[in-house]
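Worked Example 4.2. Consider the chain below.
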Amino acid sequence: MLATKLRALLQRNKGRDLFDLDYALRVFEGLNSARTVECFLLYLGKGEVAISRAEAQQRMFQKLVNPGFFTDMSPLLPTDLAKALTEETLKAAFAKVMKELIDRMPGEEWAKVGKCGNGLGCETAIWPSLFQMLSS
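Applying the procedure from the previous section yields the following structure tokens:
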């Protein structure tokens, strides 16, 4: 199920996919992230679809400049969880999914991942501390 959720995250612009993956990574103790990525790749292979690590990273950073990306999930959550969604919790969710799932994908890193900004589909101007979280 998490492999299909990862596919959904990379193929559509719904923040709820990020939220669900982050929630699973936090709640399911001992979750094997590498196995989740392996299942994701098998799932894509059966559909004869390929998404490289670089492409996945680029897609993730492009989502951050989409103003509606994080707004679709609040109406779907219980009030207490919706109120807990802050810029910091969204940054943490993004960083966790990037580190534990996207960065585990095989292949080369997106060439611009360390140079994001200046209209390259990244959000350094929006969330300057995100890259610090990703590198820690």
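The chain has a mean pLDDT of 82. Residues 2-135 form one domain. Compare this with Example 4.1 before moving on.
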